Amino acid sequence: MSKQSSDADVAFISALAELLNKNELTELSVKREYGEDDSLEVRVVKQANIVQVAAAAPAVQYAPAPVAGAAAPAAAAVAHEDPAQHPGALTSPMVGTAYLSAEPGAAAFVSVGSVVTEGQTVLIIEAMKTMNHIPAQKAGTVKRILVADGNSVEYGAPLMIIE
């Protein structure tokens, strides 16, 4: 597939995500046929206040029931915090796989506590075999990294907090 068709596909996926938000839809699925052996299948899902990350987990673990007392209100406040609503949230501009370093085994672009400048690459999202460098939207300090290396991310999912 040529770079031009990749760019067109990325624009198509962005347009689908915009359409999803504009029309207050929760899910949109499209299959685009290019030829006999070439197609693009896209599924865009929007879930309010939920970040969906596809990753293998060894087993489901349940947290113990909260004990009544002073710790319960603090735990409830943390559970309701939405990183996507944070003013310093860097959100994913596309669906893909997030990578925190340029190649396997290399040092991460940033870590918690790193000082970044506006436009500095902080991670890469691979979408349709294209590596897209994701820049910091503003200068500041990385306070939280919300994705793990190699995990899938959805459009609009919070990736990190930069203050």
Brief characterization of the structure:
By secondary structure, the protein is of the alpha+beta class. It is 18% helix and 32% strand.
Would you mind describing this structure in some detail?
This protein is of the alpha+beta class and 163 residues long. Strand 1 and strand 2 (38-45) form a beta hairpin. The N and C termini lie far apart (39 Å). It is built from 2 helices and 10 strands. The protein is globular. It has a 4-stranded antiparallel beta sheet with strand order 3-10-8-5, with no helix packed on it. Helices cover 18% and strands 32% of the residues. It has helices spanning 3-22, 71-80; strands at residues 27-35, 38-45, 89-91, 96-99, 115-116, 121-127, 130-135, 140-145, 152-153, 158-162. It folds into 2 domains: 1-50, no CATH class; 85-163, RNA polymerase II/Efflux pump adaptor protein, barrel-sandwich hybrid domain (OB fold (Dihydrolipoamide Acetyltransferase, E2P)).
Which key features would you list for this structure?
18% helix; 2 domains; four-stranded antiparallel beta sheet; alpha+beta; Single_hybrid_motif; fatty acid metabolism; OB fold (Dihydrolipoamide Acetyltransferase, E2P); 163 residues
Write the layout of secondary structure elements.
Elements (H helix, E strand, L loop, with lengths): L2 H20 L4 E9 L2 E8 L25 H10 L8 E3 L4 E4 L15 E2 L4 E7 L2 E6 L4 E6 L6 E2 L4 E5 L1
Antiparallel strand pairs: 1-2, 3-10, 4-6, 4-9, 5-8, 6-7, 8-10
